[in-house]
Amino acid sequence: MSKPSSFSLRGRKALVAIKDDRDLSIVRRQFERLGIEIDSGELDSAPERRADVTLIDDEFLPLNPTMKRTLLGGGPIIALLGTETPSRLKLLLELDPASFLVKPLRSAGIYAALVLALERAERTNELKQQVVKLEERLRSRRIVLAAVLQVMHSHAIAEPAAFALIRRAAMEQRKTIEQMSAEIAAKGSLPRATG
Amino acid sequence: MTKPYIPVGIVCSQSGPYQAMGREILKSALMAVDEINHSSDFDFKLAAHVRDPHGVIAEYHTVCDDLIRNTGVEHIIGCYTSASRKQVLPIVERTDRLLWYPARYEGFECSDNVIYVGASPNHNVLPLVRYVLDNISRHFFCVGSNYVWTWETNRVTRELVTAAQGSILAERLLELGESAVEHIVDEIVRRKPPVVFNTLVGSSSYDFIRAFNSATTAAGLDIPMLSCSLCEPELKIVGPASAGCITSSAYFESIQLPENRAFVERWKACHGETSSPSVDGQSAYVAVYLLARALKRAGTSNIGEVRRAAIGNRYNSPQGPVWIDGDNNHCVLTPRLAVSNAQGQFDIFWEADAPVKPDPYLSQLDVDVRPSRGGSSLDTPHLRIVK
Fold first, then answer.
1. What is the bridge-based pairing of β-strands B98-101 and B114-116?
2. Residue A149 pLDDT > 70, yes or no?
3. Which of A101, B60, B178, B346 has the fewest Cβ atoms surrounding its Cβ within 10 A?
4. Are B64 and B11 in contact (CB under 8 A)?
5. Mean pLDDT computed over B147-165
6. pLDDT band at A191 (very low <50, low <70, confident <90, very high)
7. How far is residue B218's CA from residue B213's CA, in Å, rounded to a whole number?
8. Distance between CA B46 and CA B67 in Å, rounded?
C-alpha cells in the first residue's frame, strides 16, 4: 500500500460541524484540494462517528449530549472561533481543542490547523502511553525495593550491587526488572549469581 | 469606434535584489498589453498602471493599495517572491480583487483572489528529482538560499529521495545575496557527491555556478548540477560556466512550437537579437493573455465573472496549451527538462506527454511510488528526443 507524504492529508476523514454556509463551502473546497473526505451529516441524531479530525464551530457550544457523543470521538478537535471572549473560550477549553481557526474562514490557515491538530494529537497520544508506562513502573517500585532488600540481606551486598544483580538476571531471562523483582518477592527465589 | 480602456496594475520591482526578474516580468507583461491593444480580437484596450516597490516587501502592500483605491484597478499582474505575494494577499482578499501571479512557487496556498500562473511544485520539483533518481543517483548534495522556496523544495526532495532509499548528503544554505560560496564548493570537491541540487537564487546562484564550474573542472570532476529556476537571461549573466545544468521548467526559449517561435521573434524585435525571454517573463505574458481572454469572455471586469470565464479557457501560449484549473486557481501546464548549453540556451530532452494538472498541496504525491511504475503524466521522465 502506498504511503502518502507526511504532510499529505489525502485519505483522511474529517467530521465537520459548521453553521455558516460560506464557512462550510470554504472548508469543503479546501478539503477537496487536500483530498480529505468530509462528513457533515446530521449531528443531532447520529451515532458516534469515527474520523481523523473534527471541526467544531463555536456556534454549537455548549454541545448537547447527542452532539457530544457524535463529535467527541472523532479525533483531535479544531475549534472555529467567532468570538474571543473569555466566556466563549471557557466553553471551548472543555473540548480540549488541538488547534483553532478564526471566522470568517479563508482558505489560508486551514492546512496548517489540520497538520498542527493531527501532529498535536499524535504527540499527546505518545505522551499518554508514556505516562501509563511510567505509572506502572512507579507502582512497581515498592516490589523492586523489596526485592533489592531481599538480595542485599541474602547476598550481604550493598544496594547498587543488589540492584545490578537483579538487572543482570532480568536481562539474562529477558524479563523486565519489575517482573524479576516480583518473582524474587513472591517466590523468595534469588537470581543466580552470574559472573 | 474607440475601444474602452480597462485599467490593470502591473507590480514588479525594477530595483533591489530581484530587479533582474522584475524587469523581465515588466517587459513581458507590457509586450502582451501592447499586442492586445493592437489586436482586432479584443474590443477593449488594457491601460497598464505600473508600480515599482523597489524590492521592499512592505511597499507591495502600499502600491497595491494605491492601485485599488486611487486607480480603480480590479486586476493586478505581478509579485515575484512569496513574501511579496503574502503582503498583497490581505488587500486583494479584503477588496475582492484578482492578483495574477506569474512566478513558479513552492505551493501550499490557494486564495480565491489569486490566479497562480506559474508552475506548481508537482510541475518542476517532482519531474526533476524523479528523473535523477531513475537515471543518475539517489544521493543529493543540496545548496540553496535560506528562504521558503529552498526549504520546501528540499523537503519534497528529501521525501522522494528517502523513499527511494537514497540520501541527502548535505543541505547547505546561504543568506539571500550572499556571495561567499567557496567553502561549499570546497566541500563538494572534497566529498565528490554524485549530484548537486542548486536552489540558490540571483547573484548567489551565479557566483556559485562559476565557482563550482571552475573548481570541478580543475579537479577533473563531472558532477551534474540541477536547478528548478535557472533561465536563459541568467545563462547569459553567468556565461559559459552555466553549461550542463539539468533544469526543470514549463518554459524554455528553445520550445519548438509555432506559438513560441513567433513569441521569441517578437521578443527579439522588441528587446534585441541577443536577448532572451525568461520563464517568469513568459509567464507574465501568459497571465496578461489569460486575463484579456477572460475579460473578453466575461464581457465585464467584474471579478466573479472574470474568474468564472477564466477557468478552463485553454490558451495556446508560447509554452503550449495552458488553462486555469477551477479546483485550485492554478495553471495546468506542461513540465519539461532540459540541459543548458554553452550558447546560453537549453536543449530540451523530456517533456510530459500532456499538460499536467496542478497539485499545489502535493496531495496526490505518493513518495514511495517508484516513478517507473504507474501511468500518470507525473511519472518519471524517460529520455527521448523532443523535436
1. parallel
2. yes
3. B178
4. yes
5. 93
6. low
7. 8
8. 15
Residues 99-138 of B with CB under 8 A from A: 108-112
* Averaged pLDDT, B106-128: 95
* The pairing of beta strand B320-324 with beta strand B315-317: antiparallel
pLDDT for residue B370: 57
- What is the distance of C-alpha B383 from the center of its chain? 23
Cα(B209)–Cα(B300) distance, rounded to whole angstroms? 48
**Residue-level pLDDT at B58:** 87
Chain B residue numbers with beta carbons less than 8 Å from the beta carbon of A3 are: 163, 366-368
Contact assessment for residue B297 and residue B44, using Cβ atoms and an 8 Å cutoff: no
Instruction: Output the pLDDT for position B378.
Output: 39
Comparing CB atoms, the residue among A3, A9, A32 nearest residue B368 is A3
Nearest to B18 by CA among B111, B83, B114, B108: B83
A22 part of contact set with chain B, CB < 8 Å: no
More confident residue, B155 or A87: B155
Return mean pLDDT, chain A: 87
Q: Alpha-carbon torsion B246, B251, B257, B260, what sign? A: negative
Write the residue in A3, A33, A108 that is nearest to B361 by C-beta: A33
pLDDT of residue A137: 86
C-alpha cell at B384: 527521448
What mean pLDDT, rounded, does chain B reach? 92
- Does B159 lie at the interface with A, CB-CB under 8 angstroms? yes
If pLDDT is split at 50, 70 and 90, which confidence band does A31 have?
Answer: very high
CB contact under 8 A, A107 and B110: yes
Asked if residue A88 lies in contact with residue A54, where contact means CB atoms within 8 angstroms, the answer is no
Beta strands in chain A, from DSSP E residues, in sequence order: 13-17, 37-39, 53-57, 77-81, 99-102
Query: Which stretch of A1-15, A69-83, A142-156, A175-189 has the lowest confidence by average pLDDT?
Result: A1-15
Closest by Cβ to A4, choosing from B93, B155, B366 = B366
Please tell me which residue of chain B has the smallest CA distance to A36: B363
C-alpha cell at B204: 548567489
Our measurement of the distance from residue B77's CA atom to the centroid of its chain's CA atoms, rounded to an integer in Å, reads 14
State CA B367 to chain mean position distance.
23
- Whether residue B108 and residue A6 make contact (CB cut-off 8 A), yes or no, is no
Of the partner residues A5, A106, A111, the one whose CB lies closest to the CB of residue B367? A5
Give the span between the Cα atoms of B209 and B204, in whole angstroms. 9
Residue of B nearest to A9 (CA): B363
B148 touches A at CB < 8 Å: no
Among A79-93, A156-170, B278-292, B306-320, the range scoring the smallest mean pLDDT is A79-93
Question: Across-strand partners of B48?
Answer: B8
